[in-house]
Amino acid sequence: MYILLIGYLYVILMFSAALIASKGVIYGLLVFVLLGVLPSWLLFWVKRRGQIVRARKAAETLAESGAAGNDQTSH
């Protein structure tokens, strides 16, 4: 997945460089931010959020199984 992201950012960077040469620096940077940085940030945020949720559920499951194991051994 990361190789696709790197390739995508490279294409957007080259596109922005062409726009900088033809239309100006502000336009090229704006395009790079809107087409490159923001989608990449969103992708990383969604992926990281899923990892955090899965880790939290795993910790809760582990805590519940540990608590259940302690309750069974004390009886």
Structure description:
- With about 80 residues, the protein is mostly helical.
- It has one domain.
- The chain is about 95% helix and about 0% strand.
- The protein is built from two helices and no strands.
- Helix 1 runs antiparallel to helix 2.
- The longest helix has about 50 residues.
- The protein is rod-shaped and about 75 Å long.
- The chain starts with a helix and ends with a helix.
- The model has no long low-confidence stretch (mean pLDDT about 90).
Helical content (DSSP H or I, runs of 4+):
over 70%
Topology order in helix (H) and strand (E) letters: HH
Proportion of strand residues: under 5%
Q: What class do helices, strands and sheet pairing give? A: mainly alpha
Return the domain count: 1
Shape: rod-shaped
How many helices? The count is 2
Q: Catalogue the unreliable spans.
A: none
Separation, N- and C-terminal Cα atoms: 50 Å
Q: Assembly state here? A: single chain
Largest sheet: none
